[in-house]
Fold this sequence. Notes:
6 helices, 16 strands
Amino acid sequence: MVKEWNSKEIRFPENPVFTRYVTDTIPYRIPRTDYKVVVFVDSVGCISCKLQLPRWKEFMHEVDSLSGGNVPFIFFFQTKNVRELRYILRRDNFSHPVCIDTEDSFYKLNRFPGEIMFQTFLVDSENRVKVIGNPIHNLPVKDLYFKEIAGIEAVSMPVTTIQADSTEYHYGVVGENMTVSRKIILKNTGNEVFRIKGTTTSCDCMTAEYDWDEIPPGGKAAMTVEYKAEEPGDFWRTITIYGNIPEKSFTLDFWGTVRK
């Protein structure tokens, strides 16, 4: 996938219409800059899970700091559920211009991959792909963006091994609109200090909280994972933890049932 899209040109529709909060259209032209971040969001699955707009706002702020605000972000949404998207944008106070592509013209021009991880691109001034991957859902991809934009290399550290007290965690039956938490215990089973790089979640209804940065060899640390139940039915969510381990990351599963 990476080889196929490397240096491939991203083509934009003629005269796309951008809006703020899916309410008022605004005059916005796609700029010709050294770099742009292009985000395509298709209509498959949960929009809120895919977007995780608070994380995008954090990433955009980091990129602005590195580039002096010279890397624009271009968002194209394939969704026809305008009402839901308007709610999400307002809920997360995401005021950045977005294009609601109800005719799927952006997709038809480019035929993007179906996997969300390969629907975000860092492109150059000729709109050719320099990095493919979603920096919100994968922290090593985020490092690639920073390396390309500002020449910042990720710091290499000695690796160790980490073991969680389980790989699956069951919340049981959760009431609709309730927030429940589970505590997980991580143990450093290796010979080097474990330094956590961060976490990503499969949905913005999951959060991971911890007050530590390192675990010494043989040591343990706790992490609290909260789930906010929004819709009735069975659910399965994941949290990925990144750090100096051979595989770079590991994923934990959380599941249960939401009832009214």
